[in-house]
Every structure is written in C-alpha cells, then in structure tokens.
Amino acid sequence: MEDLGWLGFLALGLIAFGGAVLGGLSGFGAGLIVTPFLVPVVGVKGVVPVMAVAMTFGNLSRAWVYRDQIRPDLILRVLLPSLPGVLVGGLIYDVLPRAPLAALIGSFLLISIPLRRWLDKRKVVPTPAAVIGISFLFGLVAGALPGGGVIVVPLLLGLGLAGGALVGTDAVIGAAVNIAKTILYGRLDLIDGPLLIGGVLVGLCMIPGAYAARFLIARIHLRIHTALIEAMVAFSGVSFLWSAFT
C-alpha cells in the first residue's frame, strides 16, 4: 500500500462516506464510486479485496438501518445460487494480471450504466429459473469485480421489493457475498494485513453514510442522485481504461 499521508486518507474517508450515502439511497453505486480512489493506495490488484472488506461493513450498516423492513424469505433464494458464482469469479480474479484486470474493471463500470437502465426497463420476470440464473450471474460478477448491485437490484425489484425493503434485503445479501469474497481472497493470498486494515478503515467510514442515506431517501429526487452516480461511475470506468492502456 502507498502512503498518501493524513490528507489523502481523510479524502478517501470522505469519498467512502459519500459513496455509502449514494449506495444507501438506491442499493447500488457505493463500491463503484469508491473503487477508483483506492487504486493509488492499494493498486489495481488490491482494489476488489479491499472493497470486499469495506463493503461488508457498508452492507451490514445498511442492513441494520433497515432491519425492520428486510425480507428474510427472499435472501436465501438469491444468496444460495450466488455463492458458487462468487467462487468462480474469485478464481478468475486471481489469475488476471494488472493491465487486463484494469481493462476489465473499467469496461464493467462503463457497461454497468446502460445495463442497469436496460434491466430496469425490462422488468425482470422472477421465475424460479430466472432467480437462480440471475443470482449466479450476480455472484460471478461480484466475485471478480467491484460491484454486482446493478444486476441484483432489478431482480429484487421484480420480486416485489421497493424502498427500505429493497435496500435492506440487498444489504444482507451483499454483506454475505462480501464475507464469502473476503474468506476466498484470504485463501488465495489476495488479502494481507495492510489490505485488511485498509478495508476496515474504508468500511468504518461507510457506516455513518447509511444513516445519512436514510435521512435523505425521502428528501432527494431519485433521478438526481442516479445521474450523479452514473457520472461518477463513467469517470471511474474511463480512469481504469486509461491506466490499462498507458
């Protein structure tokens, strides 16, 4: 890990807080926003493992904030098929070198914007087969890349969730997936002590963001914050692609 000094880590903490606020409003975006700012600190290869640790804290805090609206019956339906996908995705992440990995992350970030819009318009039909297939795809993406909410959120919407129930249920699923990722990355020697500490620090900065999001969720227009997230994600994607080819 690079030493950015106190000002650098303070800025990173503020970005993590802001990402948690935006993610808490919609169920996606937190990890995608924070990811590019971690690269100068942990490098491209360390980004996804650090975010796995950080998003465990971020998701647990969101789950606690919306604990009274969580739908336990839907959690296992999505979580069980997603875990094998996490394993496959993690193994793919382990073997990719830095440049292709940066290109893959950047491409995913850019593709996630039209993908989310397309999935929202398509209105995912939650048949049992669709739930299994989409959940596995979610796990595969989450295991290899710093995100996955763009895939699972439309599925949860199709299963009838909205508002706090959507954010809370998604948070429980996300926490479980990120715990599995952290364990897997540890077994693959992708997480060492400094990366673990860095992930914990970023995750702790995300906790108050969940409470701020609950305060704002009824006070901000969804289109405004969605546009802001998409702009940040697009900038992040271009940044990763630039680093891959320079």
Automatic annotation (TrEMBL):
The keyword Lipoprotein does not apply. Its main location: membrane. The chain crosses the membrane at residues 33-54, 74-93, 99-119, 131-157, 195-217, 224-245. The keyword rRNA-binding does not apply. It is found in: Cell membrane; Membrane. InterPro entries: TM_pro_TauE-like. One of its GO terms (cellular component) is plasma membrane. It is a multi-pass membrane protein. Keywords: Cell membrane, Membrane, Transmembrane, Transmembrane helix. Belongs to the 4-toluene sulfonate uptake permease (TSUP) (TC 2.A.102) family. This is Probable membrane transporter protein.
